[in-house]
From TrEMBL:
PROSITE patterns: GNAT. Keywords: Transferase. This is Aminoglycoside 6'-N-acetyltransferase I. It comes from the Bacteria. GO terms for molecular function: acyltransferase activity, transferring groups other than amino-acyl groups. InterPro entries: Acyl_CoA_acyltransferase, GNAT_dom. Gene3D superfamilies: 3.40.630.30. Residues 1-148 form the N-acetyltransferase domain.
Length: 148
């Protein structure tokens, strides 16, 4: 397994894996509008500060992806993971933890200081991230407002 950056040739395969993972348990996302899906994924992958990483096998087949952004902060550079996923048929093999480790090492080599993300407490992802060294930020809270 190796880490590589997403390129245009990988985009469609990554998109198909994304749809398969998040259309099923426990998320059940309903990406029925193709234009909305394309808009979302391109916003994640095509910005100047986008960092889209793939976990690939020895045949260069995509096993998982981490889609996010880099930000500079007074404490150093941060990588914000917006989407992190492993192919459904390859989950529960320890590949997600290996992927996080590879991302961590890659970012450490580039002097990044933090990896940050949001997740729901009622999904397996919450415990996965805790198991892999992520912790709750006591001073921070995630907030949203429905536009009415």
């Amino acid at each position: 397994m190796k880490l590589k950056k997403l390129n245009k040739n990988d985009y469609q395969e990554m998109k198909n894996i994304f749809l398969d993972v998040f259309s099923h348990k426990p998320w059940f996302d309903k990406w029925e509008d193709e234009k909305q899906l394309e808009k979302y994924l391109h916003q994640l992958t095509d910005n100047n500060n986008s960092l889209s990483l793939l976990l690939v096998d020895d045949q260069d087949e995509i096993i998982g992806a981490s889609l996010g952004y880099t930000f500079s902060w007074w404490q150093g550079d941060e990588y914000y993971i917006k989407e992190f996923f492993i192919k459904r048929m390859r989950q529960n093999e320890g590949l997600g933890s290996k992927f996080i480790e590879k991302i961590n090492n890659h970012l450490k080599d580039k002097d990044f200081k933090y990896i940050i993300l949001n997740t729901d407490k009622d999904t397996p992802a919450y415990h996965f991230y805790q198991k892999n060294g992520f912790q709750l930020e006591e001073k921070s809270v995630f907030m949203s407002k429905i536009i009415d």
